[in-house]
Amino acid sequence: MSELDFTGRVVIVTGGTKGIGRTICEAFLQRGAEVLTCGRNEPEQLPTAAGRSARFVACDVRDPEQVDALVTAAEDAWGRVDVAVNNAGGAPYAEAATASPRFSESIIRLNLLAPLHLAQRANRTMQTQDEGGVIVNIASVSGTRPSPGTAAYGAAKAGLLNLTQSLAVEWAPKVRVNAVTCGIIETEQADLHYGDAEGIAAVAATIPLGRMGTPNDVADACLFLASPLAAYVSGSSLLLHGGGERPAFLAASNAGNDG
After folding, report:
1. Catalytic residue list contains 93
2. Would you give the distance in Å from CA 131 to the centre of its chain?
3. Is residue 172 within 8 Å of residue 132, measured between CB atoms?
4. Angle between the 114-126 and 151-171 helix axes, to the nearest 10 degrees?
């Protein structure tokens, strides 16, 4: 059997109705998994691959009771939970000097507390299974470097990386917990952040590999971390950033541009 065959496995992906989350759902469906996803509103079309579709449960992941109902729905449908992907998250631009306390608290609930709630609930089930389970947190380079304009988001993602390490220690050996730390990912909303095609190309040119990441790149990382190929990987952060960012001083000084 292929190491990336998830036939008979049950996967929960939060925020899987669009963007990166949708692609993650489709990747697991393509490889045989039963997939349950959630969002506040059911999409017109659910993630589909290999002639199969994900199931949907309406859920605000910031509400622990709704998260409990989400995991219970997976248990009721398939009797187990093998993989939980904490994908739901994000934040609009907001200057830290003027962001309201209510706004900041909402961002931290979505990007840090919600993943914790799902992880706790999924772990409760996984610990009872002979083969345990895997939790994958979708993190961001905003949690490893300054995040101007999204300070609360960056702080929450930094917390998520530390949470990943702590849970990996507490819940071993039954449950592995890892993070995918994403750099700049080109989704259908990239133009809202980087402008037109010219702006997107200019941003991509700052990345050593010469392009932005894609939702497929993120999905592939999730498949790896959830698979037996990563059987000895836990408490880790897989940096998915195309080589990172060129240091600003290089551009300022034109260093390395001669010859």
Report:
1. no
2. 23
3. no
4. 20
